[in-house]
Amino acid sequence: MARKAAIVGGGVIGGGWAARFLLMGWDVALFDPSEAARARVARVLEQARYALPMLYEGPLPPEGRLRVSETLEQAVAEADYIQESVSEVLDLKHRVLSDILAANPDAPAGSSTSGFTPSDLRAGLGEGAGRVLVAHPFNPVYLLPLVEIVGRDGAVPGALEAVESALSGIGMVPLVIPREIDAHVADRLLEAVWREALWLVRDDIATTAQIDDAIRLGFGLRWAQMGLFETYRIAGGDGGMAHFLAQFGPALAWPWTKLVDVPELTDALVAKIAAQSDAQSDARSIAELEAERDGNLVAILRALRARGAAAGRAIAAHEERLSLAPGGGAFTTVERTIPLDWTDYNGHMNESRYGQVFSDASDRVLDAFGAGPDYVSAGFSYFTVESTIRYLAETLAGERIRAETRITLADGKKLGLSHVMSRVSDGARLAEADQLLVHVSLETRRSCPPREDIAARLTELAAAHASDKV
Ligand SMILES: NC(=O)C1=CN([C@@H]2O[C@H](COP(=O)(O)OP(=O)(O)OC[C@H]3O[C@@H](n4cnc5c(N)ncnc54)[C@H](O)[C@@H]3O)[C@@H](O)[C@H]2O)C=CC1
Ligand SMILES: C[N+](C)(C)CC(=O)CC(=O)[O-]
């Protein structure tokens, strides 16, 4: 049975949490008194349905059920996990958290708060306050894996572990912060840059567009893959971090920064920043900007995943935990969502990617009869010597496809495969492929008969395919 999450507050962040839980197979009950929340969450869910599956090589669990509740009590009563995401107002958070604890006697409650500490949140909550922890995410919650968890001290036994387990189960990477501090860790860093940027605009040193370029064309790219410390360690050359600190440390004391001050947000300064920001975004709507942001984030995360680095490594590890190796049934060899970067200037999946799908499908068959990575390490493999692909219909980014494969020939060194790729939503046949593979020794690089045990398993599987028993 699907696990149940309650999301209290359906704004930008609550919508993102709801989408991530749903797409990872949890049922979600949402409560937000605002009329606008339902439509807002539906829109975030649509964006997430398009983008999140592109990060995974296999299918995600079946989507959970979304229920919009009339009262907070109905939403949280049966929840296994509760995420509070109401506006950043301490009184409001106290009222809402107190209602949550009263309506559900067991479940842990994470708060999305950007700035309040667990002590701020727990004050006055009485018994059960130790079930509340800060679980601070980053926008868009359905794509960015980081969640800061704060409040180990004062938590009831098991609450921290329960929050960690629920959130890592939906693909988040919990960063447990040992001591509480206003605004936790990441937002302290972000706010420092934000303050400095506001001064630079106020003092006419740079425009909003120039500041964004300074980030995205330079150090922003570094930060996505190595963060601050490893990047600077490299910048210290062979002397490493110690040399870096010796060389650049004294500059920290120079009067470069205005961090201690916040520029007064006068009407004139707000108007100036807003006008520059409007000009910079060139009348593009928030929805257009979000689509661009999501497309770029998916591309970056997929590239990091291909290299096994940073957030990409976390996504691969999550996929392994979900046991989402491509292919569910005996004939199903690939099931996946088509990522944006597989499409070309014609607006559909490029021909080379059909080759990739069928190659992945063949690998799945090889795995199925024991000729997978271990067999390759033992010095044997199959080479594809012929491939015929028939393209039958267009395949678009975001579509979920399935490849089904049948063994058509298993004769000594020769292995014949026939694949059909179809769209999951309506079963439309998108492409077919026939392939001939030959068994080889990786030592001699020449064809040779398969090992006896492999040949026996292949014969068994081929017979089952021929008689339609699978
Ligand atoms: N927007 C951001 O970039 C981030 C925000 N956060 C945190 O997430 C929380 C929510 O922020 P946003 O989603 O940006 O705000 P938002 O303004 O988009 O959404 C807040 C939602 O709370 C609802 N709400 C108000 N009173 C409520 C009640 N009594 N019961 C249930 N819902 C109620 C509002 O109707 C609204 O839909 C805040 O604590 C914020 O600090 C965390 C990470 C990033
Ligand atoms: C602006 N903010 C403080 C609400 C931002 C965050 O908390 C995290 C984020 O997504 O940048």
Automatic annotation (TrEMBL):
Keywords attached to this entry: Cytoplasm, NAD, Oxidoreductase
GO MF, one annotated term: NAD+ binding
Biological process, per Gene Ontology: carnitine metabolic process; fatty acid metabolic process
Main localization category: cytoplasm
Catalytic reaction annotation: carnitine + NAD(+) = 3-dehydrocarnitine + NADH + H(+)
InterPro entries per UniProt: 3-OHacyl-CoA_DH_NAD-bd, 3HC_DH_C, 6-PGluconate_DH-like_C_sf, 6PGD_dom2, HotDog_dom_sf, L-carnitine_dehydrogenase, NAD(P)-bd_dom_sf
Family named by the database record: Belongs to the 3-hydroxyacyl-CoA dehydrogenase family. L-carnitine dehydrogenase subfamily.
UniProt-recorded name of the protein: L-carnitine dehydrogenase
Protein's organism: Kangsaoukella pontilimi
Lineage: Bacteria, Pseudomonadati, Pseudomonadota, Alphaproteobacteria, Rhodobacterales
